[in-house]
Fold:
Amino acid sequence: MFYEPRKGHGLPHDPFKAIIAPRPIGWISTIDRDGRSNLAPYSFFNAIHSKPPMVMFTTESMKHSASNAISTGEFVFNLCSKELFDGMNISSGDFPASISEFEAAGLAAAPCRIVKAPRVAAAPASLECKVVTSMQLHDLDGTALPGWMVIGQVVGVHIDDAFIRDGRFDTALAQPVARCGYRDYAAVTELFEALRPTDGGSYALGQTDR
Structure:
């Protein structure tokens, strides 16, 4: 089949998010200017640069996480493991600013070193981020959309030592959860390795990724 999104797909459910899958879950923690903590998952999230490391998340309406990140200039990405799925799912609820999703989901918070926002204590890894830019999205006609993108530079990295094996972060052990289409999710449970054509015979497991 072929369809133009502006004309509709004719299916019972929109296939777009199922095609762009799996997508890392950006479990974003922030605080507002009154010091109230917020925690919410975003499926439009990814790493976008490595030197310096940068990540981005996008919200399809101006919600607490984006508003807090833009106003304070800070946010934290928390890796959601399969073990933490239920807490992450609860934190996706529509809570007022006065309610902390940490408390609603029964999740312990831990302080960060550089940013003021807390991190999820049980997360296998967390990235402290400073906002470098944010932008409202526009369509082809230049019409402003309700969606916003927030880009942050990673200024601090927390890793649970239990997930470091032979000098590497063990992704399969952490079992990060990813968002697929509809109400579907996936968890990374196994990996396979493949050399790039440019690796030649000099590639070594301890070598820095290119």
